[in-house]
Write a structure and sequence with these properties.
By secondary structure, this protein is an alpha+beta fold. It has 9 helices and 9 strands. α1 runs parallel beside α5 and α7 crosses α8. The longest helix is centred in the N-terminal third of the chain and has 17 residues. It is globular, with a radius of gyration of 19 Å. The relative contact order is 0.11.
Length: about 270
């Protein structure tokens, strides 16, 4: 997450200043898109969450009406707005789970993924403006309950909210992305100073909460305050010589449809 490309977030901040709004949380996205000079169409799309078609005189932003979550629709639309305002040369572009995935875009930032990173960064700043997000989080202990509150406050997904925390370094976090039982990528906030074990391209540790969810076929096995499970620091991190183990926490966000898990690890 330590991408130095701030083009997206800077453009979103500029846009909010241009329109005179601190945030757009309560503005229907259809009207917001229209006010920017584009047209938003919601319809079934095959193998695509969103699409943007930039013409000489008219721009269409299409969103898949079959997306079950309003928060995902909002982020996809905001992502497309980012393309509209920053990437006029793309003409026709489709969005899917890869282009909207923070991890993939971080890995590919030096190649074609740079525009996707910028669009995601734009969407994150537009929907969760830094000053207001920081103000809402200030003085509150990190927890799954706080993530839920923040996601409802800004009408964003839990996953997007997690990555906003990571971006803004509001609490030292380690976030691990697991697909089909294998750790694909991980990222940490700048203030996370613990050494992470060699976990990439390997199954998650046997004693991790993530492994519990894999064994449960990605079903939700914890709810309420139990979503935050106690683990040992040594589960994911390397202990220094002579260092005693200590208590950490792990919270998992499974997606049964795609067999993925976002695992969030932190120290209280």
């Amino acid at each position: 997450m330590r991408n130095r490309n701030r083009k997206g977030s800077l453009r979103a901040k500029q846009l909010l200043e241009e329109i005179g709004y601190d945030e757009i949380t309560d503005i229907p996205m259809k009207y917001f898109v229209s006010g920017l000079g584009a047209t938003l169409i919601e319809e079934p799309l095959n193998n695509s969450d969103g699409k943007i078609i930039i013409g000489k005189t008219k721009t269409l932003i299409k969103i898949n009406s079959n997306i079950p979550y309003a928060s995902k629709k909002r982020f996809t639309i905001a992502h497309e707005i980012g393309h509209f305002l920053m990437h006029k040369n793309i003409e026709i572009h489709n969005e899917n789970s890869n282009t909207l995935n923070w991890f993939n875009n971080t890995e590919q930032q030096l190649t074609k993924g740079v525009q996707e990173w910028e669009a995601n960064n734009f969407a994150s700043e537009l929907l969760m403006p830094e000053p207001i997000f920081r103000k809402e989080a200030n003085g509150k202990s990190f927890s799954p309950e706080l993530l839920k509150y923040m996601s409802e406050r800004f009408k964003t997904s839990i996953t997007s909210t997690v990555f906003r925390y990571l971006q803004l370094d509001l609490h030292p976090l380690l976030v691990v992305f697991i697909s089909n039982g294998i750790v694909k990528y991980w990222s940490k906030s700048p203030s996370w100073y613990y050494r992470v074990k060699d976990i990439t391209k390997l199954p998650p540790p046997d004693i991790s909460v993530a492994k519990e969810y894999i064994d449960a076929d990605y079903d939700f096995i914890y709810s309420g305050k139990e979503k935050s499970q106690n683990i040992n620091k040594s589960t994911w991190c390397i202990l220094k010589e002579g260092e005693l183990d200590s208590d950490f926490f792990e919270y998992c966000i499974p997606t049964k449809q795609y067999k993925t898990i976002i695992s969030v690890i932190w120290e209280d």
